[in-house]
């Protein structure tokens, strides 16, 4: 049975901007050039209609420049939730680019709800990568989202302290409120 052709017109402008940003991040990594420079080149080329280059959406620019600026934090977040058998370098470049777009939205763009970033990333993976990519990209993105929750077991107390501005190690009242069995569980899991 053949699969129906995807209807790209049903996608929103933001989805198309994400797709273009993933394309640019992929190209930048493949060519070992700055992705922001690629965007600027495309903007210049798009000014001349004879070049046949589509204009760059403002949201594509925001994603690419944001991902380039926060690349270390993004890659660290992705690598943190990969299985032990995988490293960031082993993942196909297209999948890395897709995850970088989604993780940038999750960590650094408050305008996009986390579930939207996850769903759009999985859809990009379904469109651009092999059939195995979407499930593991979903798992990694879900872990990144879950780690944003202060009550997540994947978040260290130092990360909670940084996010809230409260030093939980010195807060004696908080330590007294933790039931004994809960503190035994957390110490036994390490």
UniProtKB/TrEMBL annotation:
Highest rank taxon of the organism: Bacteria
Gene3D superfamilies on file: NusB-like (1.10.940.10)
Extent of Low complexity compositional bias: 176-190
Domain NusB/RsmB/TIM44: 16-145
UniProt keyword RNA-binding present: yes
Family that this chain belongs to: Belongs to the NusB family.
Protein's recorded name: Transcription antitermination protein NusB
Annotated source species: Corynebacterium singulare
